[in-house]
Amino acid sequence: MPRLSLDDFLTGPPDAPIFDARAPLEYAQGHIPGAVSFPIFSDEERARIGTTYKQVNPDQAVLLGLDFFGPRMSQLVKLAQQLAPHREVRLHCWRGGMRSGAMQWLLELAGFRVHLLDKGYKDYRRWALAQFERPWPLLVLGGLTGSGKTDVLHALARRQQPVLDLEGLASHKGSAFGAIGLPPQPSTEQFENELAWQLSQQAAAPRLWVEDESRTIGTVAVPGPLFEQLRQAPLVVLEVPREQRVQKLAAEYGRHDPATLAASVLRIRKRLGGLATREAMAAIGEGDMEKMVSLVLDYYDRTYRHGLEGRPRVLRVPTDTCDPEVNAERVLAAVQQWPEPDFFPAPAP
User: Fold this and answer.
1) CA 225 – CA 212 distance, rounded (Å)
2) Which residues contact 96 (CB under 8 A, 6 or more apart)?
3) Each residue of 268-309: pLDDT tens digit?
4) How far is it, in rounded angstroms, from Cα 110 to Cα 92?
5) Measured between alpha carbons, how far is 197 from 176 in angstroms, rounded to an integer?
6) What contacts 24+ positions apart, CB below 8 Å, involve 58-62?
7) Among 112, 118, 59, 56, which Cα is nearest to 92's?
8) Where in the chain is the domain with CATH 3.40.50?
9) pTM to 2 decimals?
10) Is 288 exposed, middle or buried (0-12, 13-18, 19+ CB in 10 A)?
11) What is the structure's pLDDT at 340?
């Protein structure tokens, strides 16, 4: 079969899973969203083949690869039958070279219909990075820590508003406490892959809601070109009273292990200062979550207010509740009254 372009590959038959023939470490570092790891070689085997290619010669490397591949062929076909019962797959390696070619030969020999990505995963990465250079009609939802921005974002999505959930993709809530209760974070490369895919699904949206974030979200980073767009986009700031924010955060984090909370406080001890750190640690020991949260909020509120300086277009939306459904309605009503009718850039082509 002819090799497919990236667009045709990504929009290929929905019953044909994407098989990634690269080594497990390569897959873990970054892969096409939804792809299944289907390695032709293990990490150790790939390393040995690479060493042989460089230190001996390419012919010996090919023979070594066949030694590894041969005994595994039956096992690979059986696994493919389980993962693709319709016997149709989409397949790629790094550049569309020998690994995917060998896997294509094997699967077609076993009766599979194989759609091969022409330039491999490398082409997906090129496409993904290009998405962040395009103009997007972003509308940023901001607010001090504990305002429930993520909950409001989800409430907006339930109202059929186009939403980009950066914290969901990053598996992190953005603060020193942001990893608590969440799965491990993806690599920055995989975060970019998922983010690009989500953006592409909203290409026709007249506006795209996204939460106000720092450049880094835990261990991953928002791509530079997209972050610059976030900083220049219209910003809707949800203003929730401090007391309600404290209560919300205390209830949210009070369910977690005190030792985990203490470790998070210690990560920002230099910014909190010695006295506030000691008082926050004591509050955790006493089970006084509201006091701990209040002490930490002093730092986060100062930081966020400083970050608002220089933002070009800010709309403040006062509210007296943390209810995300109520606040989603208030935010939407406020945006409809925004005095600038043309503050969105043209949708990305």
Assistant:
1) 15
2) 3, 116, 117, 118, 119, 120, 123
3) 898 889 999 999 999 999 999 999 999 999 888 988 898 888
4) 18
5) 27
6) 62/98
7) 118
8) 134-336
9) 0.89
10) middle
11) 57
Catalytic residue status for 322 = no
What average pLDDT does the segment 38-51 reach? 93
Distance of CA 262 to the CA centre of its chain: 27
CA 11, 17, 23, 27 torsion: positive or negative?
A: positive
| DSSP secondary structure letter of residue 70 | G
Q: Are 23 and 3 in contact (CB under 8 A)?
A: no
Q: Where in the chain is the domain with CATH 3.40.250.10?
A: 6-129
Those residues whose C-beta lies under 8 Å from the C-beta of residue 187, and which sit 6 or more positions away, are 28, 29, 30, 220
Contact 192, 186 (CB under 8 A): no
CATH assignment, 6-129: 3.40.250.10
Which two structure tokens, joined as six digits, stand for 138? Answer: 């972003």
Q: Is 3 helix (H, G, I), strand (E, B) or coil?
A: coil
Mean pLDDT score of the chain: 91
Check whether domain 134-336 has CATH 3.40.630, yes or no: no
What whole-number percentage of the chain has pLDDT above 70? 97
Catalytic residue among 21, 32, 93, 226: 93
Q: Does an H or E element contain 151, and which?
A: helix 149-158
Tallying the residues shown for the chain, one arrives at: 349
- Residue 97: its pLDDT value, please? 85
Token pair belonging to 229:
């767009």
